[in-house]
Amino acid sequence: MDQLCIVTTGGTIDKIYFDDKSDYQIGEPQIGSILRELGVAFQFNVIPILRKDSLHISAEDRELIRATIAAQPARHVLVTHGTDTMVETANVLSSLHDKTIVLTGALSPARFRGSDAEFNVGCAVGAVQALPPGVYIAMNGRIWDPTKVRKNVAANRFEPVG
């Protein structure tokens, strides 16, 4: 793998909880810290382009994400993204044919003990290195084709469509 390009868009993985306000806000991207703490044996660069809950990501934002990835020389791209609209963004990115792009996120903030963030990031890192060019989602211990998966909000997990 050449250098891994990481594009961050916000989402639960980067949320900070404020007790006094009983509120969440999107903080600094956590993936660089996660990868450094895990001692990965590859080079990576982090491009933070959005700090949004995925429910607030617009069509224009998705085009910015697509254009940012298209402009990068790296062939391996990992995108951290909120889980609610991850599938929609993955479908927009499917127009990029010469890269392996894996979207991942978390169902609870990376700063929380017991968060799925580290596991999902690890799964995504393995996937982005092993898979052929295309767009994939790494969540809940599986690699998904974005056209065949949905988020089950009630169960708080990803599952096959149909």
TrEMBL record:
InterPro entries: Asp/glu_Ase-like_sf, Asparaginase/glutaminase-like, L-asparaginase_N, L-asparaginase_N_sf. Residues 4-155 form the L-asparaginase N-terminal domain. The keyword Membrane does not apply. Its EC number is 3.5.1.1. Keywords: Hydrolase. Pfam families: Asparaginase. The keyword ATP-binding does not apply. Gene3D superfamilies: L-asparaginase, N-terminal domain. GO terms for molecular function: asparaginase activity. This is Asparaginase domain-containing protein. It comes from Lysobacter stagni. The lineage of its organism: Bacteria, Pseudomonadati, Pseudomonadota, Gammaproteobacteria, Lysobacterales.
